[in-house]
Request: fold
Amino acid sequence: MIARIIYILCALTSLACAVLLLRSYARTRLRLLLWSGLCFVFLCVNNVLLYIDIEVLPTIDLSMVRAIPVVIALALLLYGLVWEVK
Amino acid sequence: MNDVLSGVIIAGYAVAGLFFLRFWRDTRDRFFAFFAAAFWLLCAQRLLLAMFRDSGSENLVYLYVVRLVAFVLIVLAIVEKNRPAKAPAGSESR
Amino acid sequence: MTSPGISEPLRAFIREHIQSVEQMEVLLLLYTTTPKEWSAVRVARELRIDPMSASRRLADFAEKGLLSARAGDEALLYWYEGSSPTNDRAIAELERANRERRTTLIGVIFSAPSDDVRAFADAFRLRRSTEK
Reply:
């Protein structure tokens, strides 16, 4: 039960970060915000997949599937941090 | 393959945390300190998960509490960012 | 990195509010002509900058409480009225430094962290006002 709350909170927080960053990107066109916003989108996906893995499909191990969005998320974030920050 | 992905993720979180730490140093904005701590917690969670994956699933739940704390830190960062600024505007006072 | 003549409170003020020379000029223009009211278009013409840019700078400063604003007949009007004692002191020092140590001052402004980093943090401000 507590675990369920944790997953949902993490997913919502990631989503909120994504929305705030992408909304700001739409306004300012600063690319760091795009990459970091997308990062949080994929982190949110990861949290949703985590919920599905544990609660909805407990018999199937989705750990590899779950890892891929995180790798993408971090790649996008690091790309932005390295290239877009002057 | 799972191990490779884990390693990449652990390193990724750690480096991102380093960037946020640097932004904190440059801006003195505590917001970035929160984010650095959060990303390093996510890194630690991943690392512990990789180390203790085979030791039984009850312990793994504790690791997700670590993840929770990381995201709570992010929420706190956002909350603090939206507190009224130090300098009161015009005729308003805090 | 210490630069002579730029005090720590002024540095802190710059770190928080001034990321470009243009921003500084907008703020100082209104400060030195207080309590005169300015519209974005007039500021842009006076400083020879892009009106959209001037408008954004003025709106940002107003949001932070450094400038006051009101709706005029045709456009938003801004003026300097003073905010907190700390800010007033910093802006006075900024004005003096701009006259006496402009090169050093500009160096301090440029050595502060970039727009992008600040924009990341600012993205998480849930503003009530919508700005173009």
Chain A is about 85% helix and 0% strand. The interface with chain C takes residues 17, 20-21, 23-25, 27-28, 30, 32-33, 36, 84-86 of chain A (CB under 8 Å). The mean pLDDT of chain A is 90.
